[in-house]
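Limitations

Structures in this collection are predictions, not experimental determinations, and the ligand pose is part of the prediction. Treat each record accordingly. The example that follows, with S-adenosylmethionine as the small molecule, is included so readers can see exactly what is and is not provided: the inputs are given verbatim, and the output is the predicted complex.
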Amino acid sequence: MVRRSNTKIVEIRPDLTVAPQVKTVAYNDINLKNWKEYDYVKTDTLWEFPSRLKEGGHSNEYHGNFIPQIAQQLFWRYTKEGDVVLDLFFGSGTSGIEAINMNRRCIGVELKDELAEKVSEKFTPKQLVTDVNIICADSASEIAKEKIKARLDIMMKDKAQLLILHPPYDDIIKFSDRKEDLSNCDTTEAFYDGFEKVAKNGYDLLEDKRFAALIIGDKYTDGEIVSLGFECQERMKRIGFRHKTTIVKDMQGNEKAKGKDANLWRYRALAGGFNIFKHEYIMIFQKDESHKRKIEKLNKLAS
Ligand SMILES: C[S@@+](CC[C@H](N)C(=O)[O-])C[C@H]1O[C@@H](n2cnc3c(N)ncnc32)[C@H](O)[C@@H]1O
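Predicted complex:
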């Protein structure tokens, strides 16, 4: 993994050293004085990764996890060392592992208790106290919110500095039979409503001016595309988030299920007039209370 430091010492004379000037924004450690050195940090809207990162404590045993490079890129752009990342769909804990690797901290909420327990084993007892807090709860609930606040308190923070939302893509992968599970909703509309409740909890627990990342793909049902991404994007904006950017991420080789049936899918696509999904979205939002107040004022005037 690439590790960079902003505290490099520049040698002027062998007997004299001067610390270089550092210029950063409020939400990351990128030294803008040396911006050309950060060529590994992506700034465009198309992300392609030749393969999934396997080192650094990551394993690919959980169907539906995201590749660690997504967490890396988001942490470089939107967090500082020591910041707390709040992941409300923790799954196999990719965000937590990468938080440790990159000297960040993480609170992860996962509905399935057996998974939360298994994921805990990836961390040392000390890390589970100081760096990664795993909560087993429904992220849409008040109970989850209260538990997160208590953990933030222990971590000496009022709010989180980055919010990660990687929900089920409606019912594409069924994660459990639990009624609170967003992959188990009766209708897609219920999925959107459930997602909005989780995102609202995330909004309330995020520090002002900080960022939220929504990782999501679309689905294809009954001969038509269901734009889960765009509807969830609208729900984020309805809560008050400012939409900053949408990244299209290539997911070639990420799709275990379709790999062996690629030809069958190609046949179906040719026969059915649709295209096979090879991408998902990473949508970036910012919490900005003053922006929210402005929108609320405009809406009031319009009604
Ligand atoms: C797409 S996966 C997230 C994978 C994760 N990013 C990773 O890399 O492993 C979605 C996860 O959300 C969990 N989940 C579904 N509904 C939930 C809810 N209401 N509250 C908390 N977790 C939920 C599922 O059990 C599943 O593990």
